[in-house]
Amino acid sequence: MAGGPLTPATPLAAVPRAPVDPRERRESVRERLAAADIDAMLVSSLPNIRYLSGFTGSSGLLVLGARSGDLFFTDFRYQSQVAAELDPAIDVRIVTEELLKSAREALAERGAGRVGFERAQLSYRQWSEWSEEEGPALVPVGEWVEETRAVKSDGEIDAIRRACRIADETFEFLLDSVRPGVSERELAGGLEMELVRRGAEGASFEPIVAFGERSALPHARPTGRRLARGEMVLFDFGAVADGYVSDVTRTVACGDPPGAMPEVYAVVLAAQAAALSGIRAGMTGPEADALARDVIEAAGHGAQFGHSLGHGIGIEVHEAPRLSRKSVDTLAAGMVVTVEPGIYVDGVGGVRIEDDAAIGSSGLEVLSAAPKDELLIVR
Q1: Is 62 helix (H, G, I), strand (E, B) or coil?
Q2: Helices 261-278 and 285-298, interaxial angle, to 10°?
Q3: What is the pTM of this model?
Q4: Number of structural domains in the chain
Q5: Of 140, 160, 214, 369, whose Cβ has the fewest other Cβ atoms within 10 Å?
Q6: pLDDT-derived band of residue 18, with 50, 70 and 90 as boundaries?
Q7: What digits encode the pLDDT tens for the residues 73-110?
Q8: Could you tell me the residue range of the domain that residue 52 belongs to?
Q9: How do the residues of the chain divide into helix, strand and coil, expressed in percent and rounded to 5?
Q10: Which residues contact 85 (CB under 8 A, 6 or more apart)?
Q11: Residues 285 and 330 in one domain
Protein backbone atom coordinates (compact mmCIF):
# COMPACT_ATOMS: atom_id res chain seq x y z
CA MET A 1 0.00 0.00 0.00
CA ALA A 2 1.24 3.50 -0.80
CA GLY A 3 2.38 5.41 2.24
CA GLY A 4 4.25 2.61 3.97
CA PRO A 5 3.10 0.04 6.53
CA LEU A 6 0.38 0.89 8.99
CA THR A 7 1.13 1.28 12.67
CA PRO A 8 -0.52 -1.64 14.46
CA ALA A 9 -3.33 -0.69 16.77
CA THR A 10 -2.85 -1.08 20.49
CA PRO A 11 -4.48 -4.34 21.64
CA LEU A 12 -8.12 -3.62 22.32
CA ALA A 13 -7.84 -4.64 25.96
CA ALA A 14 -5.57 -1.61 26.43
CA VAL A 15 -8.05 1.01 25.26
CA PRO A 16 -10.35 2.77 27.75
CA ARG A 17 -13.07 0.34 28.75
CA ALA A 18 -16.45 0.98 27.12
CA PRO A 19 -19.71 -0.13 28.77
CA VAL A 20 -20.08 -3.79 27.84
CA ASP A 21 -23.71 -4.73 28.50
CA PRO A 22 -27.04 -2.87 28.50
CA ARG A 23 -27.04 -2.40 32.28
CA GLU A 24 -23.60 -0.76 32.27
CA ARG A 25 -24.64 1.42 29.35
CA ARG A 26 -27.74 2.64 31.16
CA GLU A 27 -25.68 3.42 34.24
CA SER A 28 -23.32 5.51 32.14
CA VAL A 29 -26.22 7.65 30.89
CA ARG A 30 -27.87 7.69 34.32
CA GLU A 31 -24.85 9.47 35.78
CA ARG A 32 -25.49 12.36 33.40
CA LEU A 33 -29.16 12.52 34.41
CA ALA A 34 -28.27 12.91 38.07
CA ALA A 35 -25.65 15.56 37.28
CA ALA A 36 -28.21 17.57 35.27
CA ASP A 37 -30.91 17.24 37.96
CA ILE A 38 -33.21 15.36 35.59
CA ASP A 39 -35.51 12.74 37.09
CA ALA A 40 -35.89 10.51 34.03
CA MET A 41 -35.10 10.34 30.31
CA LEU A 42 -37.24 9.24 27.39
CA VAL A 43 -35.34 7.17 24.81
CA SER A 44 -37.28 6.72 21.56
CA SER A 45 -34.46 6.21 19.05
CA LEU A 46 -34.59 2.51 18.15
CA PRO A 47 -30.78 2.14 17.80
CA ASN A 48 -30.38 3.77 21.23
CA ILE A 49 -33.07 1.52 22.68
CA ARG A 50 -31.25 -1.53 21.33
CA TYR A 51 -27.95 -0.32 22.76
CA LEU A 52 -29.40 0.35 26.22
CA SER A 53 -31.83 -2.56 26.56
CA GLY A 54 -31.19 -5.29 23.98
CA PHE A 55 -34.60 -4.82 22.31
CA THR A 56 -34.47 -5.22 18.50
CA GLY A 57 -38.12 -4.59 17.65
CA SER A 58 -39.60 -1.65 15.78
CA SER A 59 -41.89 -0.12 18.43
CA GLY A 60 -40.87 0.75 21.95
CA LEU A 61 -40.10 3.54 24.38
CA LEU A 62 -37.46 3.24 27.11
CA VAL A 63 -37.57 5.40 30.23
CA LEU A 64 -34.36 5.70 32.24
CA GLY A 65 -34.91 6.70 35.85
CA ALA A 66 -32.23 8.82 37.50
CA ARG A 67 -32.96 7.38 40.93
CA SER A 68 -35.76 4.88 40.26
CA GLY A 69 -36.17 1.81 38.10
CA ASP A 70 -36.19 1.82 34.32
CA LEU A 71 -39.40 1.28 32.34
CA PHE A 72 -40.07 -0.04 28.86
CA PHE A 73 -43.32 0.53 26.98
CA THR A 74 -44.44 -1.47 23.97
CA ASP A 75 -47.56 -3.15 22.61
CA PHE A 76 -48.90 -6.69 22.48
CA ARG A 77 -47.06 -7.55 19.25
CA TYR A 78 -43.74 -7.56 21.12
CA GLN A 79 -44.82 -9.27 24.35
CA SER A 80 -42.86 -12.44 23.63
CA GLN A 81 -39.94 -10.60 22.07
CA VAL A 82 -39.30 -8.34 25.07
CA ALA A 83 -39.42 -11.38 27.36
CA ALA A 84 -36.61 -12.95 25.30
CA GLU A 85 -34.49 -9.87 24.58
CA LEU A 86 -34.90 -7.24 27.26
CA ASP A 87 -32.67 -6.88 30.28
CA PRO A 88 -34.75 -8.42 33.13
CA ALA A 89 -33.93 -5.42 35.32
CA ILE A 90 -36.26 -3.25 33.20
CA ASP A 91 -39.95 -3.08 34.15
CA VAL A 92 -41.92 -3.89 30.98
CA ARG A 93 -45.35 -2.34 30.39
CA ILE A 94 -47.50 -3.78 27.59
CA VAL A 95 -49.93 -0.95 26.76
CA THR A 96 -52.77 -0.16 24.38
CA GLU A 97 -52.44 3.64 24.46
CA GLU A 98 -49.75 5.68 22.70
CA LEU A 99 -46.40 4.83 24.23
CA LEU A 100 -45.53 8.44 25.07
CA LYS A 101 -48.88 8.99 26.79
CA SER A 102 -48.40 5.85 28.88
CA ALA A 103 -44.89 6.96 29.83
CA ARG A 104 -46.10 10.44 30.88
CA GLU A 105 -48.78 8.92 33.11
CA ALA A 106 -46.31 6.53 34.73
CA LEU A 107 -43.79 9.33 35.37
CA ALA A 108 -46.50 11.57 36.81
CA GLU A 109 -47.42 8.79 39.23
CA ARG A 110 -43.77 8.62 40.27
CA GLY A 111 -43.72 12.35 40.92
CA ALA A 112 -41.07 13.10 38.30
CA GLY A 113 -40.51 16.82 37.82
CA ARG A 114 -38.04 17.11 34.92
CA VAL A 115 -37.94 14.54 32.11
CA GLY A 116 -35.22 14.62 29.48
CA PHE A 117 -35.88 13.76 25.85
CA GLU A 118 -33.72 13.17 22.78
CA ARG A 119 -34.01 16.46 20.93
CA ALA A 120 -33.51 14.83 17.53
CA GLN A 121 -36.32 12.32 18.11
CA LEU A 122 -39.38 14.00 19.65
CA SER A 123 -41.75 15.65 17.15
CA TYR A 124 -43.40 19.00 17.74
CA ARG A 125 -46.79 17.26 17.89
CA GLN A 126 -45.57 14.89 20.58
CA TRP A 127 -44.04 17.74 22.57
CA SER A 128 -47.27 19.78 22.31
CA GLU A 129 -49.51 16.93 23.42
CA TRP A 130 -47.23 16.17 26.38
CA SER A 131 -47.10 19.82 27.42
CA GLU A 132 -50.89 20.26 27.30
CA GLU A 133 -51.32 17.87 30.23
CA GLU A 134 -50.42 18.30 33.87
CA GLY A 135 -47.28 16.46 34.80
CA PRO A 136 -43.51 16.43 34.36
CA ALA A 137 -41.79 19.12 32.30
CA LEU A 138 -39.88 18.07 29.20
CA VAL A 139 -36.20 19.04 29.03
CA PRO A 140 -34.13 18.54 25.83
CA VAL A 141 -30.82 16.79 26.36
CA GLY A 142 -27.79 16.33 24.11
CA GLU A 143 -26.70 13.21 22.29
CA TRP A 144 -25.81 11.46 25.54
CA VAL A 145 -26.51 7.95 24.33
CA GLU A 146 -24.78 8.52 20.99
CA GLU A 147 -21.72 9.84 22.80
CA THR A 148 -21.63 6.69 24.93
CA ARG A 149 -22.02 4.55 21.81
CA ALA A 150 -19.03 6.24 20.12
CA VAL A 151 -16.44 4.22 22.09
CA LYS A 152 -16.90 0.52 21.42
CA SER A 153 -16.28 -2.48 23.65
CA ASP A 154 -14.17 -5.43 22.49
CA GLY A 155 -17.35 -7.35 21.66
CA GLU A 156 -18.73 -4.53 19.55
CA ILE A 157 -15.49 -4.25 17.58
CA ASP A 158 -15.49 -8.02 17.06
CA ALA A 159 -18.98 -7.77 15.57
CA ILE A 160 -17.86 -4.99 13.20
CA ARG A 161 -14.82 -7.10 12.28
CA ARG A 162 -17.17 -9.95 11.31
CA ALA A 163 -19.32 -7.58 9.27
CA CYS A 164 -16.17 -6.41 7.45
CA ARG A 165 -15.09 -9.96 6.71
CA ILE A 166 -18.47 -10.74 5.14
CA ALA A 167 -18.25 -7.59 3.01
CA ASP A 168 -14.70 -8.42 1.90
CA GLU A 169 -15.63 -11.95 0.84
CA THR A 170 -18.73 -10.70 -0.96
CA PHE A 171 -16.77 -8.14 -2.96
CA GLU A 172 -14.24 -10.69 -4.16
CA PHE A 173 -17.01 -13.11 -5.11
CA LEU A 174 -18.90 -10.43 -7.02
CA LEU A 175 -15.96 -9.48 -9.23
CA ASP A 176 -16.77 -12.41 -11.53
CA SER A 177 -20.10 -10.70 -12.29
CA VAL A 178 -18.49 -7.43 -13.44
CA ARG A 179 -18.78 -7.77 -17.20
CA PRO A 180 -20.14 -5.71 -20.09
CA GLY A 181 -23.93 -5.78 -20.28
CA VAL A 182 -24.66 -6.29 -16.58
CA SER A 183 -26.81 -3.58 -14.98
CA GLU A 184 -26.17 -1.62 -11.81
CA ARG A 185 -29.33 -3.05 -10.27
CA GLU A 186 -28.32 -6.61 -11.12
CA LEU A 187 -24.97 -6.21 -9.40
CA ALA A 188 -26.56 -4.48 -6.39
CA GLY A 189 -29.16 -7.24 -6.04
CA GLY A 190 -26.53 -9.96 -6.34
CA LEU A 191 -24.42 -8.18 -3.75
CA GLU A 192 -27.25 -8.10 -1.20
CA MET A 193 -28.05 -11.79 -1.72
CA GLU A 194 -24.41 -12.77 -1.38
CA LEU A 195 -24.03 -10.82 1.87
CA VAL A 196 -26.87 -12.86 3.38
CA ARG A 197 -25.56 -16.12 1.92
CA ARG A 198 -22.27 -15.48 3.70
CA GLY A 199 -23.92 -14.91 7.07
CA ALA A 200 -24.99 -11.27 7.20
CA GLU A 201 -28.29 -10.28 8.79
CA GLY A 202 -28.65 -8.09 5.73
CA ALA A 203 -27.04 -5.14 3.99
CA SER A 204 -26.19 -2.24 6.31
CA PHE A 205 -27.64 0.22 3.76
CA GLU A 206 -28.90 0.20 0.17
CA PRO A 207 -25.75 -0.64 -1.81
CA ILE A 208 -24.31 1.87 -4.25
CA VAL A 209 -23.27 0.41 -7.60
CA ALA A 210 -22.40 3.03 -10.22
CA PHE A 211 -20.90 2.70 -13.71
CA GLY A 212 -18.93 5.11 -15.87
CA GLU A 213 -19.83 8.78 -15.46
CA ARG A 214 -22.32 7.82 -12.72
CA SER A 215 -19.44 6.72 -10.47
CA ALA A 216 -18.74 10.45 -10.08
CA LEU A 217 -21.99 10.71 -8.08
CA PRO A 218 -20.90 9.98 -4.48
CA HIS A 219 -24.34 8.64 -3.47
CA ALA A 220 -25.60 7.24 -6.77
CA ARG A 221 -28.53 4.82 -6.54
CA PRO A 222 -28.38 1.74 -8.76
CA THR A 223 -30.30 2.02 -12.02
CA GLY A 224 -30.89 -0.12 -15.07
CA ARG A 225 -27.81 1.36 -16.75
CA ARG A 226 -25.66 -1.37 -18.29
CA LEU A 227 -21.90 -1.61 -18.08
CA ALA A 228 -19.67 -0.98 -21.09
CA ARG A 229 -16.05 -1.92 -21.47
CA GLY A 230 -13.66 0.90 -20.54
CA GLU A 231 -15.76 2.23 -17.63
CA MET A 232 -15.16 2.65 -13.91
CA VAL A 233 -17.31 0.67 -11.46
CA LEU A 234 -17.84 1.92 -7.90
CA PHE A 235 -19.21 -0.32 -5.12
CA ASP A 236 -20.19 1.09 -1.72
CA PHE A 237 -21.85 -1.44 0.58
CA GLY A 238 -21.76 -3.12 3.97
CA ALA A 239 -23.01 -6.05 6.02
CA VAL A 240 -24.80 -6.33 9.36
CA ALA A 241 -23.40 -8.89 11.82
CA ASP A 242 -24.79 -9.28 15.35
CA GLY A 243 -26.46 -5.89 14.97
CA TYR A 244 -23.27 -4.04 13.94
CA VAL A 245 -22.37 -2.78 10.49
CA SER A 246 -19.52 -2.48 8.04
CA ASP A 247 -19.18 0.17 5.32
CA VAL A 248 -16.70 -0.51 2.51
CA THR A 249 -16.07 1.11 -0.90
CA ARG A 250 -14.02 -0.25 -3.76
CA THR A 251 -13.55 1.08 -7.30
CA VAL A 252 -12.51 -1.11 -10.24
CA ALA A 253 -12.36 -0.76 -14.01
CA CYS A 254 -14.07 -2.94 -16.60
CA GLY A 255 -11.38 -3.16 -19.25
CA ASP A 256 -8.85 -0.38 -19.76
CA PRO A 257 -9.83 2.62 -17.58
CA PRO A 258 -10.60 5.95 -19.21
CA GLY A 259 -8.16 8.84 -19.42
CA ALA A 260 -6.58 9.91 -16.16
CA MET A 261 -8.47 7.43 -13.97
CA PRO A 262 -5.38 5.34 -13.11
CA GLU A 263 -3.63 8.51 -11.86
CA VAL A 264 -6.76 9.52 -9.96
CA TYR A 265 -6.90 6.08 -8.34
CA ALA A 266 -3.25 6.36 -7.27
CA VAL A 267 -3.90 9.76 -5.65
CA VAL A 268 -6.93 8.47 -3.72
CA LEU A 269 -5.00 5.40 -2.57
CA ALA A 270 -2.10 7.58 -1.38
CA ALA A 271 -4.52 9.92 0.42
CA GLN A 272 -6.16 7.02 2.21
CA ALA A 273 -2.78 5.54 3.15
CA ALA A 274 -1.72 8.89 4.63
CA ALA A 275 -4.86 8.98 6.76
CA LEU A 276 -4.67 5.34 7.85
CA SER A 277 -1.05 5.73 8.92
CA GLY A 278 -1.56 9.11 10.58
CA ILE A 279 -4.84 8.98 12.50
CA ARG A 280 -4.33 8.79 16.27
CA ALA A 281 -6.41 8.99 19.44
CA GLY A 282 -6.49 12.59 20.63
CA MET A 283 -6.59 13.98 17.09
CA THR A 284 -9.54 16.17 16.10
CA GLY A 285 -11.91 15.40 13.26
CA PRO A 286 -10.54 18.25 11.10
CA GLU A 287 -6.96 17.09 11.70
CA ALA A 288 -7.83 13.57 10.56
CA ASP A 289 -9.63 14.90 7.48
CA ALA A 290 -6.61 17.03 6.55
CA LEU A 291 -4.31 14.00 6.39
CA ALA A 292 -6.04 12.79 3.23
CA ARG A 293 -7.27 16.13 1.91
CA ASP A 294 -3.77 17.60 1.81
CA VAL A 295 -2.63 14.78 -0.49
CA ILE A 296 -5.57 15.26 -2.85
CA GLU A 297 -5.21 19.05 -2.91
CA ALA A 298 -1.48 18.79 -3.61
CA ALA A 299 -2.31 16.65 -6.65
CA GLY A 300 -4.67 19.34 -7.94
CA HIS A 301 -7.94 17.54 -7.20
CA GLY A 302 -9.08 19.41 -4.08
CA ALA A 303 -12.27 20.71 -5.71
CA GLN A 304 -13.22 17.15 -6.66
CA PHE A 305 -13.18 15.87 -3.06
CA GLY A 306 -16.32 17.47 -1.71
CA HIS A 307 -17.32 15.21 1.17
CA SER A 308 -15.73 14.45 4.53
CA LEU A 309 -13.04 11.84 5.10
CA GLY A 310 -15.22 9.59 7.22
CA HIS A 311 -17.55 8.90 10.12
CA GLY A 312 -18.11 6.51 12.97
CA ILE A 313 -19.92 3.21 12.53
CA GLY A 314 -21.53 0.81 14.97
CA ILE A 315 -25.19 -0.08 15.36
CA GLU A 316 -25.81 2.53 12.66
CA VAL A 317 -23.84 3.25 9.53
CA HIS A 318 -23.40 6.92 10.48
CA GLU A 319 -22.41 7.55 14.10
CA ALA A 320 -20.05 9.78 16.04
CA PRO A 321 -17.34 10.83 15.47
CA ARG A 322 -17.13 12.81 12.22
CA LEU A 323 -13.84 13.10 10.36
CA SER A 324 -14.50 16.35 8.53
CA ARG A 325 -13.36 19.94 8.22
CA LYS A 326 -16.36 21.09 10.28
CA SER A 327 -16.21 18.40 12.96
CA VAL A 328 -15.96 19.35 16.63
CA ASP A 329 -15.16 15.76 17.64
CA THR A 330 -11.96 14.46 19.22
CA LEU A 331 -10.97 10.90 18.37
CA ALA A 332 -10.58 8.40 21.19
CA ALA A 333 -9.30 4.85 21.48
CA GLY A 334 -12.12 2.39 20.96
CA MET A 335 -13.89 4.40 18.26
CA VAL A 336 -14.46 2.72 14.89
CA VAL A 337 -14.41 4.98 11.84
CA THR A 338 -14.54 4.86 8.06
CA VAL A 339 -11.67 6.36 6.06
CA GLU A 340 -13.01 7.12 2.59
CA PRO A 341 -11.33 9.77 0.42
CA GLY A 342 -12.60 10.20 -3.12
CA ILE A 343 -12.11 12.14 -6.34
CA TYR A 344 -15.04 12.65 -8.71
CA VAL A 345 -14.55 13.80 -12.32
CA ASP A 346 -17.83 14.97 -13.90
CA GLY A 347 -18.71 13.17 -17.09
CA VAL A 348 -15.90 10.62 -16.71
CA GLY A 349 -16.09 8.79 -13.40
CA GLY A 350 -15.09 8.73 -9.78
CA VAL A 351 -12.83 6.84 -7.40
CA ARG A 352 -13.53 6.26 -3.71
CA ILE A 353 -11.65 3.83 -1.48
CA GLU A 354 -13.15 3.17 1.96
CA ASP A 355 -12.08 0.99 4.85
CA ASP A 356 -13.27 0.58 8.43
CA ALA A 357 -10.72 0.98 11.21
CA ALA A 358 -10.66 0.73 15.00
CA ILE A 359 -8.68 3.44 16.78
CA GLY A 360 -6.22 2.13 19.34
CA SER A 361 -4.08 4.05 21.81
CA SER A 362 -1.44 4.35 19.07
CA GLY A 363 -2.69 4.01 15.53
CA LEU A 364 -5.38 2.05 13.75
CA GLU A 365 -6.39 -1.54 13.23
CA VAL A 366 -7.86 -1.72 9.73
CA LEU A 367 -10.80 -4.12 9.91
CA SER A 368 -11.65 -4.46 6.21
CA ALA A 369 -9.34 -6.13 3.73
CA ALA A 370 -10.85 -6.29 0.23
CA PRO A 371 -8.20 -5.85 -2.51
CA LYS A 372 -7.27 -2.23 -3.31
CA ASP A 373 -3.47 -1.87 -3.59
CA GLU A 374 -3.74 -1.08 -7.29
CA LEU A 375 -6.57 -0.29 -9.67
CA LEU A 376 -8.13 -3.67 -10.34
CA ILE A 377 -8.95 -4.11 -14.04
CA VAL A 378 -11.62 -6.74 -14.73
CA ARG A 379 -11.28 -8.10 -18.27
Answers
A1: strand
A2: 150
A3: 0.92
A4: 2
A5: 140
A6: confident
A7: 999 999 999 999 998 899 999 999 999 999 999 999 99
A8: 22-148
A9: 35, 25, 40
A10: 53, 54, 55, 56, 57
A11: yes
